[in-house]
Amino acid sequence: MVVVVALVGLGLAGGMALGPGLPADEQPPAASKLVQPDGTESYVWPYTSRSRSVEGRTLALNVVVHGHPERVERALRNRSGVNWTSVEDDTTIGTSPWQPARGAARYTYVATDKNGDGRWVKARYHLGTGSYLGHRVHVRAYPGPASNWTALQAHTEYWDWFRLRHTVTGVSRGARFVERDLRDEPFVDRISRVYHGLGGGGSDGWLTAIELSGAAVLVGVAVPMGRRRVDGAEILLPVGLALLVLGVRAAGIAAEAAAPGLSPKLFAALLYPVLAAGPPILAARVARGRGANRVTALAVAGFGAGIVLDMSGIGLAVVPIRLALHRLVLVGALGVLTYGVASADRRTMWLGVVVWVLSLSAPLLGFI
User: Fold this and answer.
1) DSSP characters for 47-112?
2) Which range (34-38, 237-241, 299-303, 331-335) has the least confidence?
């Protein structure tokens, strides 16, 4: 029991300490941090930012498409419906996998000369393939002002029910998906890679250049228990906890597919209370009057298994330390709550409740 409480405190403190703050002041990037897309006279900061400031830097841009921005957008959104005059009449254009997508506002900086004179621009449109409340590839598009190119930022991500927002799982995987999508299209002539040398944000400094027939070049990142028999209710506890976690994910994906015209955040708002209140309510109902150590172990095992299976189901192979600590806190808080109910120790029970609520609140307030 003491170990569980210690892990809860350690995880919560560590997660909050690692939580980044958001910058408020605007500032342009240094001219040395700008990249000039091949064949153009303009420059772009090869990252996105939460704010109009380099201090808010998030992910690296990983695609710059040379060509008229409208043509680039049609190539991604509806390429089979476009009259590609540079492609022979007997060729077949593939169907685009991309759909309009929702995502948080992100900015990048574009300049008209090598001195860095320019402005911050917001993503013009978002595209995605996959499920908003599951796992998807997400693209933000930044057409260059008065330029013949469009910069894209493509990444893979999954919806994290405990944080109520997306968690990025890869920039390089997002770029490779874009490459595979366009590689076999008849309007693509050549794919090569270019080194610009600016790392960070998931980039290792290498770019993938894709040349379109009759157009110019696309550039993309190639980035980076006791012996007593367990009764039926006790069996229900770990199974029910695991199914709660997995069921919320499955219900969100199913609702999103059934009603694509509605905002996925509506389904998230309806399902989140089930995830927030379901585990402690189920644990408390089953734990009352049973062996404290045994039922606590069952609760921790079931809830932990649900979290692991959920991450595995959406293809999350590497878990950032901050998220791992947060999940450890949640599992520990549920264990403390369960132990308190089973042992009729109200103080311990309320400690578990308080830590559970704080653990859920921390990501919503930006600490995790």
Assistant:
1) EEESSSBGGGEEEE--EEEES-HHHHHHHHH-GGGS--TTS-TT--PPPP--EE------EEEEES
2) 34-38
Tallying the residues shown for the chain, one arrives at: 368
Q: Tell me which residue range forms the domain holding 125.
A: 34-221
**How far lies 247's CA from each of 59, 60, 240, 275, in Å?**
31, 34, 10, 9
Mean pLDDT of 123-132: 95
Answer yes or no: do 120 and 211 share one domain. yes
Q: Please, which residues have CB within 8 angstroms of residue 363's CB and are 6 or more apart in sequence? A: 160, 162, 163, 164, 165, 326
Reported pTM: 0.77
pLDDT in tens, 76-119: 888 876 666 656 655 678 889 999 998 999 999 998 887 888 99
Q: Are 106 and 29 in contact (CB under 8 A)?
A: no
Asked, for residue 207, whether it belongs to a domain, the answer is yes
Q: Which residues of 117-131 are buried (b: 16+ CB within 10 A; e: fewer)?
A: ebebbebebbbbebb
Q: Mean pLDDT across the chain, nearest whole number?
A: 83
DSSP 189: E
- How many structural domains compose the chain? 2
